[in-house]
Design goal:
394 residues; alpha+beta; Butyryl-Coa Dehydrogenase, subunit A, domain 1; Butyryl-CoA Dehydrogenase, subunit A, domain 2; Butyryl-CoA Dehydrogenase, subunit A, domain 3; 12 helices
Length: 394
């Protein structure tokens, strides 16, 4: 076990920013091959960005949520697939830190271990001596192509026919991978389907989901006093996930202004698009929406960090607000990209132009079941009206 001095927040964000040119060079390759490029993975690892949510005793940094969000946003500014994959791996490392300490010793024995995860309980775990037998099929298994471990969600069969949600850590080598990630957006994430067939999972690698999500109870003794594991799962996840569409919106803004000096408006007298009042309205509207998206991401992250530092409990309304922040950030980011994409004209549809990829990526991420703006706003509204949230993922 190795404890090292963690880089500052500014240092980690700067490292992410320095990776953007490398990530962009490989964006087309990542789309074509439906996976992250080895040089991108190596660059992210060498920058230490995979260690942001790893326990300090294994050489991790235990970074706060705002730092994680700023790093993820920068990576997504390079390519949404990189931002989404690293975001998933970051929360997966945090999840691994909830397991019994001896299991963590096994997982983090490799200092460069990468962990993926899926929160959809698409499997069934049946108790057996010493653990459970797991069967299931999970689409959207982000990170599995690049991970040594994977945290899956399933339901645990009880003796009276009831089922309770759980999370289970399994070596990725024990899962079957189905190469079915043929999508219009976030292609580089390689979020293929995984299958478990009569897979034995020892009892120590199982986490009950309800106590974890709602009561912040976990099975690690050595991490119990760390600030990083005092925050609830859903608000942490909400902030980090929302940083990805924010990064995509910033990328769209860069792509638009990079082409603006040489672009005219076809079939009009405007030889320079920058001179048209319509363009002024479009870029102002997009800039405002990006600022609003960033506000929601920052507020979500700061709420987690502040409540952890002060040891405060979370109300259901505060938990619902965290989900709302994620939905609102996603909506505003998508609106900004849509405006800038519309303003980019017909030349933006060529496959070598980043705007078309950004548009497809933001559309894809906005349809994700956890980030979907309508779902999250409805959830927040239900709680404001005094109703049950209707989900345990809060």
């Amino acid at each position: 076990m190795t404890t090292i001095e963690a880089p500052t927040s500014a240092q980690l964000v700067r490292r992410a920013t320095e990776l953007v040119p490398l990530i962009r060079r490989h964006a087309a390759w990542q789309e074509e091959h439906r996976a992250l490029h080895p040089e991108v993975l190596r660059g992210v690892a060498e920058a230490g960005l995979m260690k942001m949510r790893v326990p300090a005793r294994y050489g991790g940094f235990e970074s706060d949520v705002r730092t994680v969000c700023e790093v993820i946003s920068e990576l997504a500014r390079g390519d949404g697939s990189v931002g989404w994959t690293v975001s998933t791996m970051t929360i997966s490392s945090w999840l691994a830190g909830l397991l019994p300490d001896q299991v963590q010793d096994e997982i983090f024995a490799d200092p460069d271990v990468r962990i993926g995860s899926s929160v959809s309980p698409n499997g069934v775990a049946v108790p057996t001596e010493g653990g459970v037998v797991l069967n299931g099929r999970w689409p959207f298994s982000t990170g599995v192509l690049h991970s040594q471990w994977f945290v899956h969600s399933a339901v645990l069969a009880g003796p009276d026919g009831e089922f309770t949600p759980v999370m289970l850590a399994v070596p990725t080598a024990e899962l079957t991978v189905v190469d079915d990630w043929h999508t219009v957006g976030l292609r580089g994430t390689g979020s293929v389907t995984t299958v478990a067939e009569d897979l034995f999972v020892p009892e120590g690698r199982i986490l009950p989901m309800i106590p974890l999500v709602l009561q912040n109870r976990h099975r690690s003794e050595l991490n119990a006093g760390s600030l990083m594991w005092q925050a609830p799962f859903s608000p942490i996840t909400a902030a980090g996930a929302a940083a990805v569409p924010l990064g995509l919106a910033k990328a769209a803004r860069e792509a638009f202004f990079e082409k603006l000096p040489s672009r005219k408006i076809a079939y009009t007298h405007y030889e320079h698009q920058a001179e048209a009042p319509l363009t002024h309205l479009q870029v102002a509207e997009a800039a405002m929406k990006i600022d609003e998206a960033e506000f929601h991401v920052r507020r979500a992250a700061e709420q987690v960090d502040d409540k952890v530092r002060h040891g405060e409990d979370w109300s259901i309304e505060e938990r619902a607000l965290a989900r709302m922040e994620m939905g609102a950030a996603t909506r505003r980011a998508k609106e900004a990209v849509d405006v800038l994409n519309t303003a980019s004209g017909g030349s933006s549809i060529y496959s070598d132009q980043p705007m078309q990829r950004i548009e497809r990526d933001i559309q894809t991420i906005s349809l994700h079941g956890v980030l979907h703006p309508d779902t999250n706003l409805e959830l927040y509204g239900r709680v404001l009206c005094g109703l049950e949230p209707g989900t345990h993922l809060i």
